[in-house]
Amino acid sequence: MRTSERINNIVTGGDDGWSVFYRARRLQREGHPVTMLSIGDHDIKTDRMILNAMTASMDAGNLGYSPVEGSHGLRSAIAERVTARTQTPAHEGHIAVTPGGQSALFCAMMATLDPGESCLLLDPYYATYEQTIRSASARPIPVACRAEDGFQPDVDAIAAAIEPDTRAILINTPNNPTGAVYRRDRLEALATLCTQRGIWVISDEVYDTQVWQGDYVSTRDLPGMAERTLVVNSLSKSHAMTGSRMGWVVAPEGVQARIADLLIATNYGLPGFIQDAAEFAVREAQAAEDAVVARYRHRRDAALAALGNGPGFRLVPPEGGMYIMLDIRETGLTGDDFANRLLDAELIGVMPGESFGKATAGHLRIALTVPEAELTDALARIARFAAKMMEAQPA
Ligand code: PLP
């Protein structure tokens, strides 16, 4: 029996640069002391008060089906959060609650793209983006952001990449993997372009609490954009709740209603006790949220102080997010090669830039997801290793 073309085409071959990550995990399972700086999962645990809210909800018997698009309390809490954080008010009718930001991305694609249509995405991009677009039977068109331009969106290149069937553009600020926080002037130019060409903006803002430099701008807040922007967000990064799978879409009302239809057909609501914990997190756990932000800010500053630039690598200082990037092109190695050799020699797992598209080839993404002392020790070893790779280059 054959499986559908739709599902066959979600992954289009190759390991997309993930093999080094799987190898690092295997080594770890086999008992090797691997320092994992690969994926964006916290060493920080979900705050105890949030967990208490979760267990209290379970104990109170909130274990049945819950409203499919999210509970009234949670959606109004999220809408109040969006309103407080931005210049554009939101209400419950704009919010659809999803199992994590990943599902929110899928819902946004399904809501805006018909089969065969294309969606632009800015390269480098989060590793699931292409699959998510293809899951909606649509076609991803990557548009490169240049390292020399701080990985900001190149609006001329975006305009040139639009095809007659392009219906949406997917952006991510603060950006994973580069840490770029998209500048207001670039987003304004992008907004003008999308308005002129009738294109939806899907704006992934899951790192919106982690802004270290520059002004964070949400595209939804730009004039006229609330009607053509779907914002994707979650509590995964902001509240160290990756495993709770708690995300949402902020969408124009008519779109939110269609996403609610889709949610009936997909997950049929999130566990009520997770929603109650999320409502508590959004309404009453500011201190826990601040603690997560402070931890990453400190680690980011410590990483920059520990590294600087050295033989074989150049640091790309992140303006936001929970990663740093190193440009290791000087060593003559690809990111993939460097990451594999680093794992063998030093038992340190990092992501090759090639995992995130073509624009970060020859780079490494390093997650700041281990305690500071372990992080700075690993960075010093990475720097020494880069210098060694430089020396080993053929003359
Ligand atoms: N978007 C970006 C840019 C991410 O980096 C991630 C996770 O790493 C996600 C979305 C998905 O997050 P969630 O855990 O909320 O599904």
Give the ordered list of helices and strands. Answer: HHEHHEHEHEHEHEEEHHHEEHEEEH
Unique ligands: pyridoxal-5'-phosphate
**Structure annotation, total helices:** 13
Question: Distance between the terminal alpha carbons, to the nearest Å?
Answer: 56 Å
* Whole-angstrom Rg: 21 Å
Note the overall shape: globular
Judged by helices, strands and strand pairing, the structural class is alpha/beta
Return the average pLDDT rounded to an integer. Answer: 95
In order across it, which strands form the biggest sheet?
A: 2-8-7-6-5-3-4
* Number of β-strand runs: 13
The percent range for helix content is 40-55%
Chart the SSEs and their pairings.
Blueprint lengths: L4 H4 L10 H11 L5 E2 L11 H12 L12 H14 L9 E4 L1 H13 L5 E6 L5 H7 L3 E6 L10 H7 L4 E7 L11 H14 L2 E5 L24 E6 L12 E4 L2 H13 L6 H13 L1 H22 L6 E3 L6 E5 L7 H12 L1 E2 L1 E2 L10 E5 L4 H20 L4
Parallel strand pairs: 1-11, 3-4, 3-5, 5-6, 6-7
Antiparallel strand pairs: 2-8, 7-8, 9-10, 10-13, 12-13
Helix pairs in contact: 3-10, 4-10, 5-6, 5-9, 10-11, 11-13, 12-13
